[in-house]
User: Fold this.
Amino acid sequence: MILKKIPMQTYENFHKMFSGSNQNTFNICRECGGACEHNKIGTLLPGEEEYMAEKMGISVSDLKIRYLDMLKMDDGTQIQVLKLGRLCPFLNEDEVCKCGDFKPIFCKIYPVILTIENEKINYIIDDWCNLSKKEACRLYFETAIPLLSNLAIPIEWLRHVISYDNLCFDYDELEKCRRGKNKYAIFSLDELLSLQKAELETSRLCIDFGQKAEELIF
Ligand code: SF4
Ligand code: SF4
Assistant:
């Protein structure tokens, strides 16, 4: 299925209006130890690879080769994900996210998560995350919800993402599985689901806690 991409300017507007984590949240995340990052998959929204490539000044194909893999769903829908492996390819040597102010929106908005209820996309705060337990923080992340609604995320796309997004995967097996594939590796959903893990590990996909203090928002 071919889905409508979210326009570049819409991404730009979102990032201008919502800056995401700051030093306050990093302190909470550091104490938490990155629990949300264990064995997870980082998904890009439709068209987000084009926006990120533009911001990085590289071609989309270069971005894909260096940073992304693709999940190909049974109906042909193509979903761009951060390279499936133990650490996110955007982490630099100081364990800081290289994406700066254009990091993937799903990274930027957490603990806001997307669900489908009554055939509509619903935005909620994940109570499991320690950020949700601090009222000022919760209120701040709630400000992302109307902005997310403006993105007009396709529900068909989200349905696919929900089929794997809450599961845990074996990164070592995923890395082995990619060995016979192109650098921009394509995984089917069945292939991905066969590499699930029963339990969380303590290693992280992203250890993005080293950021310098930004302007305090709350
Ligand atoms: S976002 Fe939430 S779950 Fe993830 S590291 Fe921070 S406090 Fe922990
Ligand atoms: S380093 Fe972390 S915040 Fe940055 S893109 Fe990777 S998973 Fe997302």
Remarks:
- The radius of gyration is 17 Å.
- The chain has a mean pLDDT of 88.
- The longest helix spans residues 155-165.
